[in-house]
From TrEMBL:
CDD domains: SpoU-like_RNMTL1 (cd18106). InterPro entries: Alpha/beta_knot_MTases, MRM3-like_sub_bind, Ribosomal_eL30-like_sf, rRNA_Methyltransferase, SpoU_MeTrfase, SpoU_subst-bd, tRNA_m1G_MTases_N. One of its GO terms (molecular function) is RNA methyltransferase activity. GO terms for cellular component: cytoplasm. Residues 1-23, 222-266 are annotated as: Disordered. It comes from the Eukaryota. One of its GO terms (biological process) is methylation. Residues 1-12 have a biased composition (Basic and acidic residues). The keyword rRNA processing applies. Residues 61-132 form the RNA 2-O ribose methyltransferase substrate binding domain. This is MRM3 methyltransferase. Gene3D superfamilies: 3.30.1330.30, 3.40.1280.10. The lineage of its organism: Eukaryota, Metazoa, Chordata, Craniata, Vertebrata. The keyword rRNA processing applies. The gene is Mrm3.
Length: 361
């Protein structure tokens, strides 16, 4: 049993914990050198990879110069940056990283926790970005089009990341993700997105009732679909796969692809609306317009079809050669989005040309 300390002993100064070793990477830019046995990196990376943690604490994990630089330039808030050499910090905007805790660790430690085959030696913990507070690149905003993307049950991380990259490349105004989609801040999605997360607003985890409130007035919502190559344009199709509608026992219903939308589509089996259909390369991209891309496993949800029907939207058929399986969701998204971009730019050019015509008289 230990002897209790006397008042004199208690008044003696107690040994302090080891001082944190701090160094300057640049004037006014200080970093901390992690001591041997420091487990902060492993702990932070482990919890940041958890969706539950990301949702509860609003933190995300970013890795690599390109992704972290894009995030910083778009206004994302850094909390902690782990790096293996001071040279990594010199590649980042100094004013932004001064707001973060900078911790120098061994490259072997980063390699242990990295998801990359060849780690760069740079990891960052950021606050989850709020689209309303981000400063997206000027070039992106200048080339933005009244074209929106709605992802419906996209569950594969690689596919969603590729879709987001296509959306940014096509100049989409924003991307909406419904409940059932994979978390866009999951590390695999971030890697596949190649910086798209910081170029286009992404609003995630929406239920279908709240989707219309995130769309501009007067928008037409179309859905991407695969088409039976033997079926003529103007018929609905029900194959399974990327963007396919749920199975229906009814035969395809013919409709005129050029007819004006009546906003009162008939309903097929199980209350699923029967939308007018046309090939994706025919005229459909009015201003503004949204495209729904469904996942490979479940296809388009009935809620997506009902939203399209309520806006006078159409089913955009992507024909494939007989015997070829349905298209990957990411490929289908790229095809339809860039066709939508082409049509919108062509329509804008026509309007500009009309305005340049001399006024009669």
């Amino acid at each position: 049993r230990e002897r209790p300390q006397s008042p004199a002993e208690r008044s003696e100064p107690q040994p302090l914990p080891p001082a944190v070793e701090r160094s300057a990477a640049a004037p006014g830019l200080w970093y901390e050198k992690a001591a041997p046995g420091d487990r902060r990196l492993g702990k932070v990376v482990t919890i940041a990879k958890s969706k539950k943690f990301r949702d509860n604490h609003g933190k995300i994990l970013l890795e690599g110069h390109r992704l972290i630089k894009d995030a910083l330039e778009a206004g994302a808030v850094p909390q902690t940056l782990f790096f293996s050499t001071v040279g990594h910090l010199k590649l980042l905007p100094e004013a932004e990283i001064k707001r973060a805790s900078l911790v120098k660790v061994k490259f072997e430690d980063i390699k242990t926790w990295s998801d990359l085959v060849t780690p760069q030696g740079l990891l960052g913990i950021f606050s989850k970005p709020d689209p309303a507070k981000m400063s997206y690149p000027a070039a992106q905003l200048t080339n933005s089009l009244p074209l929106l993307l709605i992802c419906d049950n996209i569950r594969d991380p690689g596919n969603l990341g590729t879709i987001l990259r296509s959306a940014a490349g096509a100049g989409c105004e924003k991307v909406l993700l419904t409940k059932g989609c994979v978390d866009p801040w999951e590390p695999k999605v971030l890697r596949a997105g190649m910086g798209a997360h910081f170029r286009v607003p992404i609003i995630a985890n929406l239920d279908w009732e709240s989707v219309p409130t995130n769309l501009p007035d007067g928008i037409q919502v179309c859905v991407a679909d695969n088409n039976d190559p033997d079926a003529p344009a103007g018929t609905t199709s029900v194959p399974r796969g990327a963007g396919s509608a749920p199975d229906s026992p009814k035969a395809p219903t013919k409709s005129s692809p050029k007819a004006a939308p009546e906003h009162k589509d008939k309903e097929g089996a199980a209350g699923i609306p029967e939308l007018a259909a046309q090939h994706y390369y025919e005229d459909w991209a009015q201003t503004p317009v949204a495209v729904v891309i469904g996942g490979e496993t479940h296809g388009l949800s009935p809620a997506a079809l009902r939203l399209a029907a309520s806006t006078g939207g159409r089913r955009l058929l992507i024909p494939v050669v007989p015997g070829v399986d349905s298209l990957n969701s990411a490929i289908a998204a790229g095809i339809v989005l860039f066709e939508g971009k082409r049509q919108l730019l062509w329509r804008h050019k026509q309007e500009d040309d009309r305005q340049k015509l001399p006024v009669p008289g």
